[in-house]
Write a structure and sequence with these properties.
single chain; 452 residues; alpha/beta; Rossmann fold; N-(1-d-carboxylethyl)-l-norvaline Dehydrogenase, domain 2; 3 domains; 6-stranded parallel beta sheet; 17 helices; 43% helix; 13% strand; binds nicotinamide-adenine-dinucleotide; binds uridine-5'-diphosphate-xylopyranose
């Protein structure tokens, strides 16, 4: 079977690489000539563990190809996946212009039965728009070619994308014909053999499933962050409360880690888009509006704590940051809490020294010369007036606290991901602040570092 993946971003590349890994002949298409040239030379545009090796291996085997020529790719394919971006419009609804453009391209170039599958995250009703766009192009050509549309939302997580694709919790597929169902069943067989389920349903339900899943996960995060904030006020410890509630199997223990708000290219935009879908149908999604509001304020919570520590004046203070990406194992900074925190620190007149294992180049696109980029986590601490941990990369988990204490101008640690032990840091002499634990009673006002 020959398949084409249109849009070679996070989803397109992982999808293309994983299908070629199981022996399928895959062509990945993108409008970005530079990206395609780089991919052909083995330069992968994103950091995703395992992806570079998998792409290179399958290119060398001759079953993974990259091109900007959508016409050739569509003509030679049985199945075409659309995996272009669906960024938020001005009002927060999903902008479908790239998806519809690709649908039109399919209609312009298909010359035989083709199954067009939407993998991008799209609002309910989009498959119908895709179908109409293809039909219009076929009508313009005055040809009558049989085709199907299907919806196959993607559930991969960045940083674990390959594993998620190869061993999915489930594959969701919305279809309108038996032919489409059989084709997708065959295509996904290598991934479902070991009991990973493929769930077929109607197209609208499949489109809705993706938004419902992301919104449910975002809801869990905003819920735990809201409870964490209350824990701080009443003197409870969210880490203990989390353990207490997650031992109830009905609640489950995943996606209930408090932090500085969810970021990334999916949760913020998908929650917004679902709220807009509700509005379009005169239905108010009250829970999701609250989820969004909690998340927006949570992104400022660490900045507010630093500001409070310095009595509302950060002018001339230097803040060291560990972690810039929206989560570990990726260089993606889309909607990362770090963006909001850095903007606020700069506006308050602070200097920022930042380190991230892989996202420094990405950060340079956002902040240019406005902040200092360090190649080593300890280098950020030199003469800094506090450290803020924004992403829970493994290498930050057991640092050398004594060296940290020595390097920092003021030994204060603001832990946005609750990765450190309060009593251990206190013993060494740090002022320590995290999320959902009241550490106010431990505050010793800024003091000079003790030397070891
Ligand atoms: P991305 O921005 O990384 O990649 C999109 C690619 O599409 C870009 O390379 C762009 O140049 C290309 N493109 C745009 N218009 C095109 C056209 N007309 N023809 C060919 N290529 C075109 O986006 P992404 O993160 O891969 O997300 C893609 C979709 O998948 C979105 O709808 C997103 O919501 C969804 N999704 C993303 C993730 C994720 O973790 N990133 C997970 C699940 C679902
Ligand atoms: C998410 C979904 O998990 C995935 O199924 C979907 O396909 C795309 O969107 P992703 O955005 O890559 O994946 O990362 P995810 O691991 O879900 O984390 C999203 C954000 O939530 C991150 O900023 C992370 O730090 C935050 N988060 C996650 C928390 O704050 N607490 C948690 O307990 C879990």
């Amino acid at each position: 079977m020959n398949i084409t993946i249109i849009g070679s971003g996070y989803v397109g590349l992982v999808t293309g690489a994983c299908f070629s890994e199981v022996g399928i002949n895959v062509t990945c298409v993108d409008v970005d000539q530079q990206k395609i040239d780089n991919l052909r030379n083995g330069i992968i545009p994103i950091y995703e563990p395992g992806l570079e090796k998998m792409i290179t291996r399958n290119m060398n085997k001759g079953r993974l190809h990259f091109t900007t020529k959508i016409s050739d790719a569509v003509r030679s394919s049985d199945v075409v996946f659309i995996s272009v971006g669906t960024p938020p419009d001005e009002d927060g609804s999903a902008d479908l212009k790239y998806v519809i453009q690709v649908a039109r391209d399919c209609g312009k170039h298909m010359n035989d039965y083709t199954l067009v599958v939407t993998k991008s995250t799209v609002p309910v009703g989009t498959s119908l728009k895709v179908k109409n766009a293809i039909k219009e192009e076929l009508d313009k050509r005055k040809v009558n070619i049989d085709f199907d549309v299907a919806s196959n939302p993607e559930f991969l997580k960045e940083g674990a994308a390959i594993d998620d694709f190869l061993k999915p919790d489930r594959i969701v597929v919305g279809v309108e014909s038996t032919r489409a169902e059989e084709l997708l069943n065959t295509l996904y067989k290598p991934f479902t053999l070991n009991g990973h389920p493929i769930i077929f349903m109607d197209v609208i339900s499949a489109e809705m499933t993706k938004y419902a899943a992301n919104s449910m996960l975002a809801t869990k995060i905003s819920f735990i962050n809201d409870i964490a904030n209350l824990c701080e006020i009443v003197g409870a410890d969210i880490n203990k409360v989390r353990k207490g509630i997650t031992s109830d199997t009905r609640i489950g223990n995943k996606f209930l880690y408090p932090g500085i708000g969810y970021g990334g290219s999916c949760f913020p935009k998908d929650v917004q888009a679902l709220i807009r879908t509700g509005e379009e149908y005169q239905y108010e999604l009250k829970v999701l509006k609250a989820v969004e509001a909690v998340n927006n304020s949570q992104k400022s919570i660490l900045f507010n704590k630093i500001m409070k520590y310095y009595d509302g004046d950060l002018k001339g203070k230097t803040v060291a940051l560990w972690g810039l990406s929206f989560k570990p194992q990726t260089d993606d900074m889309r909607e990362a809490p770090s963006l909001e925190i850095i903007r606020k620190l700069l506006a308050a007149g602070a200097n920022v020294r930042a380190y991230d294992p892989v996202a420094l180049n990405e950060a340079k696109h956002h902040f240019g010369n406005a902040i200092t980029y360090c190649e080593d986590q300890y280098e950020t601490l030199i003469n800094a007036d506090c450290l803020a941990v924004l992403t829970e990369w493994s290498e930050f988990r057991i640092p050398n606290f004594k060296i940290m204490h020595k390097l920092l101008n003021v030994p204060a640690v603001f832990d946005g991901r609750n990765i450190y032990d309060k009593s251990e840091l206190k013993k060494i002499g740090f002022d320590y602040f995290c999320i959902g634990v009241n550490t106010d009673s431990d505050i010793l006002k800024p003091k000079l570092s003790l030397s070891y």
